[in-house]
TrEMBL record:
This is Inner membrane-spanning protein YciB. InterPro entries: YciB. It is a multi-pass membrane protein. Plays a role in cell envelope biogenesis, maintenance of cell envelope integrity and membrane homeostasis. GO terms for cellular component: plasma membrane. Belongs to the YciB family. The chain crosses the membrane at residues 12-29, 41-63, 70-90, 102-122, 134-154, 166-185. Keywords: Cell inner membrane, Cell membrane, Membrane, Transmembrane, Transmembrane helix.
């Protein structure tokens, strides 16, 4: 299925909507205990139970609208289903808190394996939106590996040493802000190794 273009606002809503709903649900339910089918659940677990079908639905809608899902979106959905499902089934939020750590280690490992083979697999995901020379992709991939490893450590520190409220704030706002800041900090790299898309298309036509 060919990839289709959709409104950036629609895409942002599908990408971030489930996380925002989780944040709101957690803050409304965090102080309570809820009996469901004869079993007591904390507000954290109930919010997690709401998040799982929401992210599955939003991912399905995104796929139907665009005809394509990135490797990160697929991996995120699978890990949410596994670790979120374990948290609900075992009534233990620990598994859901570990999910970001597993995701970041997974991507660091995949990108690192590509680097060992002299390949920048990040280029396969982002090249269309960000044309750049191979040398630039290799540098950016190395930096992303370092970032993902640092975020994995940070997530472990936060959920193991701080309150649920701080961890939810960190997951909802802290991690996205760090990622956006990291990408913005690569401006000089993009400027040095970037390829003008119009010139590239013109060269291909010749």
């Amino acid at each position: 299925m060919a990839e289709k273009k959709i409104s950036p606002w629609v895409k942002a809503g599908l990408d971030w909507g489930p996380l925002i709903v989780f944040f709101i649900a957690f803050n409304r339910l965090k102080d309570g205990s809820y009996e469901i089918l004869g079993r007591e659940y904390s507000g954290f677990v109930v919010a997690t139970a709401l998040f799982i079908p929401l992210i599955a639905f939003s991912t399905l809608v995104l796929w139907r609208l665009t005809g394509k899902l990135s490797a990160m979106q697929i991996a995120t959905l699978v890990l949410v289903l596994i670790f979120g499902g374990l948290s609900v089934w075992l009534n233990d939020p620990t598994f859901f808190k570990m999910k970001p750590t597993i995701i970041y280690l997974l991507f660091a490992g995949i990108l690192g394996a590509g680097l060992l083979r002299g390949k920048a697999w990040l280029q396969l995901v982002m090249e269309e939106a960000l044309p750049m020379e191979h040398a630039g992709w290799m540098i950016l991939t190395k930096r992303f590996v370092g970032l993902f490893l640092a975020l994995a450590v940070a997530n472990e520190v936060v959920w193991r040493t701080m309150s649920d409220e701080i961890w939810v704030d960190f997951k909802t706002f802290g991690l996205p802000i760090i990622l956006i800041g990291f990408i913005m900090a690569q401006a000089k790299l993009f400027e040095k190794y970037g390829i003008d898309k119009a010139e590239e298309d013109g060269a291909e036509e010749k």
